[in-house]
């Protein structure tokens, strides 16, 4: 049975009563005072700051953002990030399989090491305080900005915004052309991934996918429990959260899992990378705060072994005053994404789902938002994904109305009519917007990366994979719309000689 979900608008405040947070980054010279062996103890300068905050604002507690991974392990990860890509490029140079393939040769020739200014900031530098309400959060931020002698950056983090609504189809986003589907008005243009499954590694079985959602329920007849690992210190919040929010978030995560790893069998759907293993982490962490922490979730996945050649899908966006933005808007999330890419993990990140009331949201140019508005914005290394309407034929491409866009966007995929799994062992026609598109691109990335690893014994770097997937020579070109390129996986796999 196929079902179309009835997605009513969620509450304007899906997490009523949950706190605001003010993040801040400590200058490097004060990190030398950080006590070893504990994420809880504060450097002396911050103990003094906490006293000043409490004198001004009452019971305010300064907390470290990194709660799951020990300082020692974080330092190990950050030290390895300085050499991981160099080691990958050395292995690529030693591989002989690429020498007879011009596409692989051109990709492997693209060696990349981040400039010093782009190296991942120290995640141990980020702290936060919880508070009630936007006005109070802004007042605390202004107070902290007055301590610029040892605070380098501040950021106000709002409570989680509502998940976007969803909308109908079959899995034609997997196809290249389906001219026989007369009832849908002609040929569809999609990923062209079905033929790639026959290649060695074509099911994605040579890579892993890390997935950050709010919460999940992995119970579905078309999911294989052995392909899902959720041991990453995740504690989705329940207290005070409306049932509509919880149910929508569970559906959202199950729809993502369906796009990625639904079984390749005779029932329900087939996941794009149905042979891979997905490692699940929630942006709600197991600590005493009620503030989402995407950076800590990323660090937990890296700590547990997500590494060179793997894919990390961040099904998150940051919501501020009605506008939905890429999650790297949050400074420590940006730092964690940079760390992941410098460790060889390709990060897939939604561009976000526009601004305005839920019944009239419109996509916005990312240049309107920090950090993309800066004269020389930092490159996180992530593949940023926008969304299109379901293209009915080549040349009929339209941006999905709520999808953000701009020069920083690398790729797009369908943002409507995405058929996938849903609750109750059922199938839905209605996964949509940049969440659906990012899941599709993550699946495509896993297949391509797995095929390359199967051919050469060594994967592409994140920069090489991003270059390939955003090359209009190997996909549907949406750059004129500000949405990047939708990769043609079959064409890429053929060009690789698989």
UniProtKB/TrEMBL annotation:
Transmembrane segments annotated in the record for this chain: none
Family, per the entry? Belongs to the peptidase S8 family.
Q: Which domain of life is it from?
A: Bacteria
Which InterPro entries is this protein grouped with?
Peptidase_S8/S53_dom (IPR000209), Peptidase_S8/S53_dom_sf (IPR036852)
Domain spans labelled Peptidase S8/S53: 205-473
MF terms (GO), sorted A to Z? serine-type endopeptidase activity
Question: Record's Pfam families?
Answer: Peptidase_S8 (PF00082)
PROSITE patterns, per database record: SUBTILASE (PS51892)
An example of a Gene Ontology BP annotation on this entry?
Answer: proteolysis
Task: Tell me the protein's name.
Answer: Peptidase S8/S53 domain-containing protein
């Amino acid at each position: 049975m196929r079902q179309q979900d009835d997605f009513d608008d969620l509450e304007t405040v899906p997490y009523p009563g949950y706190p605001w947070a003010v993040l801040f980054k400590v200058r490097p010279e004060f990190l030398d005072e950080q006590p070893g062996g504990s994420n809880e103890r504060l450097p002396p300068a911050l103990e003094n700051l906490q006293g000043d905050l409490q004198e001004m604002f009452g019971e305010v507690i300064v907390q470290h953002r990194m709660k799951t991974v020990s300082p020692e392990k974080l330092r190990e990860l950050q030290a390895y990030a300085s050499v991981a890509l160099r080691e990958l490029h050395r292995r690529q140079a030693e591989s002989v399989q690429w020498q007879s393939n011009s596409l692989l040769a051109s990709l492997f020739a693209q060696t990349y090491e981040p400039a010093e200014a782009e190296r991942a900031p120290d995640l141990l530098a980020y702290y936060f305080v919880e508070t009630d309400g936007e006005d109070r959060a802004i007042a605390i931020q202004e107070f902290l900005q007055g301590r610029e002698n040892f605070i380098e950056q501040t950021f106000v983090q709002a409570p989680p915004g509502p998940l976007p609504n969803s909308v109908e189809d079959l899995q034609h986003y997997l196809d290249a052309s389906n001219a026989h589907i007369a009832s849908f008005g002609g040929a569809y243009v999609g990923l062209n991934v079905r033929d790639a499954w026959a290649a060695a590694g074509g099911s994605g079985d040579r890579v892993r996918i890390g997935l950050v959602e709010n919460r999940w329920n992995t119970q579905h007849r078309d999911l294989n429990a052995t392909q899902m690992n959720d041991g990453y210190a995740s504690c989705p919040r329940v207290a005070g959260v409306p049932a509509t929010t919880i149910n929508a978030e569970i559906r959202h995560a199950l729809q993502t899992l369906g796009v990625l790893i639904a079984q390749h069998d005779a029932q329900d759907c087939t996941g794009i990378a149905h042979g891979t293993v997905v490692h699940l982490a929630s942006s709600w962490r197991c600590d005493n705060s009620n503030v989402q922490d995407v950076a800590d979730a990323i660090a937990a996945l890296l700590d547990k072994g997500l590494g060179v050649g793997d894919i990390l899908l961040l099904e998150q966006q940051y919501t501020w005053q009605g506008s939905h933005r890429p999650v790297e808007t949050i400074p420590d999330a940006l730092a964690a994404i940079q760390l992941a890419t410098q460790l060889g993990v390709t990060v897939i990140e939604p561009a976000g789902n526009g601004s305005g009331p839920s019944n009239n949201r419109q996509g916005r140019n990312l240049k309107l938002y920090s950090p993309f508005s800066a004269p020389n914005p930092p490159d996180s290394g992530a593949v940023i994904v926008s969304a299109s309407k379901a293209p009915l034929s080549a040349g009929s491409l339209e941006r999905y109305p709520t999808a953000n866009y701009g020069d920083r966007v690398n790729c797009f995929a369908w943002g409507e009519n995405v058929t996938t799994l849903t609750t109750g062992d059922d199938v839905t026609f209605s996964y949509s917007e940049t969440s659906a598109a990012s899941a599709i691109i993550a699946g495509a990335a896993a297949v391509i990366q797995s095929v390359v690893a199967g051919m050469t014994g060594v994967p592409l770097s994140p920069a090489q994979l991003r270059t390939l997937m955003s090359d209009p020579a190997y996909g549907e070109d949406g750059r004129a719309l500000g949405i990047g390129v939708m990769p043609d996986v079959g064409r890429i796999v053929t060009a690789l000689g698989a």
